[in-house]
Design a protein that fits this description.
elongated, alpha/beta, 218 residues, 44% helix, five-stranded parallel sheet
Length: 218
């Protein structure tokens, strides 16, 4: 009997022990661990969607007593500045999607007050088309560290973590089946877990190899 799949909201585990370190993200993780011994007051971490940038922002804010600001909060800017004024650090998620004037104002505002700044983006500043010359100059002068595409070990661990965040225990054979057949990206790992959770709920069953084949169209 098919059951109705209810769209539930899940909270990802964002502690230090929950961050999965591999060769693809070790440099970015090391920068967070080095805080406050940064050579500059600001840092850009860039990488593909779902690669753990937000997780790193949470870890940094825990160390720095900082605040995470969404890119959308920079337009209008006043509320973001009011919230950041009492913080010891500011992290901007999806910084490359922020309004340029608001981001430039925030960069200058943090610099004037010596408030450390962490920017999370999909692309490195040098690879972004930035219309405002002053913003381009400031961002491209900052240290930047990238997160690369995941290797098999990390991608498998990411799958396990996504399942665990949803309270699902999955046999190793399911992970082994998914790895060589799915798109090689963090976003795809998140998407396939969402689909398998939906199928499991609809069928009232565990996440099985049969469901994994179905999720991938096999």
């Amino acid at each position: 009997m098919t059951q109705l799949a209810i769209d539930l909201h899940y909270s990802a585990a964002l502690g230090r022990a929950d961050f999965l370190v591999s060769a693809s993200n070790a440099a970015a993780f090391d920068w967070i661990e080095r805080w406050p011994e940064w050579p500059a007051p600001a840092l850009v971490i860039h990488g593909p969607e779902g690669s753990g940038k937000t997780h790193l922002a949470h870890l940094w804010c825990e160390r720095s007593a900082g605040l995470i600001v969404a890119a959308t909060a920079l337009d209008p800017l006043e509320s973001a500045l009011a919230a950041a004024a009492s913080q010891r650090g500011v992290a901007v998620d999806d910084a490359d999607r922020a309004p340029e004037a608001g981001l430039l104002h925030l960069v200058n505002w943090c610099g004037e007050r010596r408030i450390p700044l962490l920017l999370l983006a999909r692309l490195a500043p040098a690879a972004c088309a930035i219309a405002l010359p002053d913003l381009a100059s400031r961002l491209r002068s900052l240290p930047a560290v990238g997160i690369a595409a995941p290797d098999d070990a990390l991608l498998g661990a990411v799958l396990v973590k996504h399942f665990a965040d949803r309270g699902l225990r999955v046999a190793p054979g399911v992970i082994a089946y998914l790895l060589p057949r799915m798109e090689r990206s963090f976003a795809a790992a998140a998407a396939v877990v969402v689909e398998l959770d939906r199928l499991a709920l609809s069928n009232g069953s565990a996440v099985t190899l049969r469901l994994a084949r179905r999720a991938l169209g096999g």
